[in-house]
Design a protein that fits this description.
Length: 420
Amino acid sequence: MVSDTMATGEALHGSGLTIDQSKRPDISYHPDEAKWRALTARRLAEDPSLPHTPLPQGFPKQLAGPLVWEGKQWADEDLWVYSLSEEELQEIDKAVHYFEDSGHSLTQVDQTTFPLPKLSHTLHNLAAELYAGRGFFLLRSIPTSIYTPSQNTLIYLGISAYIAPTIASQDPSNGSMVGHITDLSSKDENGRPGAPAYRNVSQPFHSDPGDIVSLFTLGEAEEGGESKLVSAWRVYNELAETRPDLVKVLAEPFPLEVSGVLAANRNAPYQLRPFLYKCPQDDRIIIQFSRRLATGFQDRPRSPAIPPLTEAQAEAIDALHFLSEKHCLTMKLRTGDIQYVSNLGLFHAREGFVDSPQNKRHLLRLWLRNEEMAWPTPPALQVRYNNLFKKVPEDRQRFPVEPEVRSMYRGPSLENKAKA
């Protein structure tokens, strides 16, 4: 029987244990379609009854609503891009100067300190799109070149205060509230930033923590870096219809790396947590998963202290990715664009990119929640959400204007520098 602690998905296990890795499936961070198809064919040949597996109790056979879509529906970007008017840009500029003249710090950005009397109504309607609509939109475009890095951060926080006012810390260990997504491999003295966000490689489909992930484009790459979005509900519907056994697998606990702990000690505990959850009051489902926590990434491979995935778990993770590729929308983020994406109903991915001395990809990132519009939190996610959105005291909040690697991914020497 699973304990109450484990049922929340927060139980830690495995410190110092020797675990048999001989049955580890052949799966890595970057998906291999040929390997996935071969594994699928073999598992179905061994057990033809898998597609007839009942769905987990209470899980819907099909999801419906505006969150179920195909990427081809959004080929016309005018359907999801909101281009700010000159009047609205002037209102934002006026709010910047109002905030600065008032002497506030970035810890105090809210709807009163960053007033947008007209634009606020549009932003509120767009916020509803994240929770009750298609699950994404793009604001175009802030004239970033006329503002300082600190002012661009202020604009990002000020606009976001009208969309989802609750902000999660990007790095609780040092209080950083905003993340920088860019290639930092050349700046890390250990040569290993440790996460795809700080490399120029592609990122498979995944979801970030919390309700909403947002990106503010400060710079574009010379080539590549396209953003991909997909309806997780569309992916769920196809799995529920064709492979309900994999829905069952996703709703059961996976052995996952505990970021930050294992970065310092490769024999540290791991976590048991499902990827698929059902909201308590209705049929809505949430799939929140990170492939890296299940597979490792390049120079930070999966620890031998973590039990291997089963073949069913490996197939399910790959199925999420390749079905996402099948149904996704690809978009190019331009300098000055702000993208808002639901982590509740969507997955996102990124193409690899190439920088040049003149053109370097650089994004700011926020994790957000709108308490008034938020979905009921599944009990199994409650502890995770409480920890994620636990407010960092104002005297510890940081808003770095220069890119930095999150503490959990730094090597020992950088970690010591951070504490100095």
